[in-house]
TrEMBL record:
<comment type="similarity">
    <text>Belongs to the Rv0495c family.</text>
</comment>
<dbReference type="InterPro" id="IPR021458">
    <property type="entry name" value="Rv0495c"/>
</dbReference>
<protein>
    <submittedName>
        <fullName>DUF3109 family protein</fullName>
    </submittedName>
</protein>
<dbReference type="Pfam" id="PF11307">
    <property type="entry name" value="DUF3109"/>
</dbReference>
């Protein structure tokens, strides 16, 4: 582990390789799991604001869940997460003609229809952020549905922290990320990664 400001970073973030392979997984991370994606409290309002923009892209079942319980709920562990359909699928999923699953929010963002990318936990995956008193913990999360991403990451020799440069800057800022890169260089020089 290394510490940058009030953030503790697991060495796995430097050591492990990762590169999403949508052709292999077809977006399975949005439709598998036992709860929705973690959501920060300040993101709930943004999710509600973007809803009219993406409404027609959502499945009727997702619309029904949102109408009944809203865009988020509190899961068994007490965390705020996106609402789900069929006990596992995020309500914000949509599909293309090939059957690939996409985030309707991200799709709208990329089309210039809204200014919210998607929940930061989704953007940061496979990193999960934990809160430990005054510290945040940045940990690499292993999940079977991402096997293809691990293989492609190894093939391309792309460490998790480089794959997630944009969302890490979004979460912690450019200066923090620059320090993360400096730490990576030091760890490499010491043959620790």
């Amino acid at each position: 582990m290394v510490q940058i400001d009030d953030v503790i970073v697991s060495l796995d973030v430097f050591r492990e390789k990762f590169l999403c392979d949508l052709h292999a997984c077809k977006g399975e991370c949005c439709i598998e799991g036992d709860a929705g994606a973690p959501v920060e409290l300040e993101e709930v309002e943004k999710l509600e604001e973007v809803l009219p923009v993406i409404w027609d892209d959502l499945a009727p079942e997702a619309q029904e869940v949102i109408n009944r319980q809203g865009v988020v709920y509190t899961d068994e562990e007490g965390d705020l997460v996106t609402s789900i359909v069929n006990g596992k699928d995020c309500v914000f999923t949509c599909y293309d003609e090939k059957g690939y699953c996409y985030c309707a929010i991200e799709k709208a963002y990329r089309e210039g229809k809204c200014n919210f990318y998607k929940p930061i936990s989704c953007h940061l995956y496979p990193i999960r952020i934990g809160d430990y008193g005054p510290y945040k913990a940045v940990n690499y999360h292993r999940w079977d549905v991402c096997k293809a991403a691990v293989l492609l990451g190894k093939k391309e020799n792309l460490p998790v922290y480089k794959f997630l440069k944009e969302p890490l800057i979004r979460k912690f800022g450019a200066e923090w990320y620059q320090e993360l890169e400096n730490v990576a260089k030091e760890l490499e020089a010491q043959h620790l990664i």
